[in-house]
Amino acid sequence: MQDFRRKCTGGDTMIGTFAAIPHPVAIEVTAAAGVDFLCIDWEHAQISRERIEDLVRAADVHRVPAMVRVPGHAPESIAAVLDAGAAGVLVPRVSTAEQARAAVQATRYPPIGARGVGPGRAAAYGYRIPNYLAEANENLLLAIQVETAEGLANIQAISAVEGVDVIFIGPGDLSVSIDAMGPAGAEKLNAAIEAIADAAKRAGRTVGIFRPSPDDIGKWVKSGINFFILASDTMFLGASVAAGVAAAKENAQR
Ligand code: 3PY
Ligand code: MG
Q1: Could you report the per-residue pLDDT of 124-144, keeping only the tens digit for each?
Q2: Ligand 1 probe mutation, 147, 228, 230, most atoms within 8 A of CB
Q3: Which protein residue's CA is at the shortest distance from atom 1 of ligand 1?
Q4: Distance 172 CA to ligand 2 centre (A)
Q5: What are the φ/ψ torsions at residue 182 (nearest 5 degrees)?
């Protein structure tokens, strides 16, 4: 668990998935299935703040790092999930270096950042504050999403911000923002992804991306991307039910 950040920034290929089902059972099933990490999706799933702590706790049972995608840039949201014991944060829609610096400030304790100290679950409810303080800046992963035309334009300045570990590409939002949706936009979208990955790598950042399916992971590894969020628990559930029902119906015709 403690080596999550070291692995992500050290070049290991990391395969995680989004957790969108707000129940500890779904977290346990996913964690037991062999993912390298989980990313609880507070941006796009209906998960309450209190429930996030229970989901992190369920991942901890399996010793699988659980980071959280926060709903925006508010330092209070970042502090809340880190205090709950999250292994890191994924901050969506970062489009300027200033926003990237604000994410660093909210994630890191002084002297690097300005995160407030509190007796949350991460610090054993106060009993381990000194120990947590000594390790947090070293262990917590900060990933920021570049997924807008403005972020693409500012990628060099964003990548240069010290304290950011992972530049994570959101192809869905990016395709909408740069008008590169569907098969017709594939070439433009791929060029934008490559441009972001190149700039981030040159600045020494780890590069991550969301992929809805495992089919092209190898292609992106060759482009220097090593941090993947593969689909989500809801997507895996839907695909698996659809495939099972289709196979049963086909079998029933024989
Ligand atoms: C996107 O594709 O926009 C994402 O945010 C994926 O995580
Ligand atoms: Mg997005």
Answers
A1: 999 999 999 999 999 999 999
A2: 147
A3: 170
A4: 6
A5: 70, -175
Phi (first) and psi of residue 171, to 5 degrees: -65, -30
Taking 80 as the threshold, does the pLDDT of residue 1 lie above it?
A: no
Q: How far apart are CA 33 and CA 37, in angstroms?
A: 11
Structure confidence at residue 2 (pLDDT): 72
Ligand 1 atom closest to 43 (CA): 5
List the domain boundaries for the chain: 4-252
23 as an active site residue: the answer is no
Question: Whole-model pTM above 0.70?
Answer: yes
Flag whether pLDDT at 70 surpasses 90.
Answer: yes
Ligand 1 pocket, CB under 6 A? 145, 147, 170-173, 210
Write the class of the CATH domain 4-252.
alpha beta
Q: Which of 62, 75, 27 is nearest to 47 (CA)?
A: 27
Using the CB atoms, write b or e for 14-47: b if 16+ within 10 Å. bbbbbbbbbebebbbbbbeeebbbbbbbbbebeb
Looking at the predicted structure, is the pLDDT value of residue 240 above 80? Answer: yes
Structure confidence by residue, pLDDT tens digits, 166-207: 999 999 999 999 999 999 999 999 999 999 999 999 999 999
What phi and psi, each to the nearest 5 degrees, are found at residue 90? -115, 115
Structure tokens at 106: 């909210």
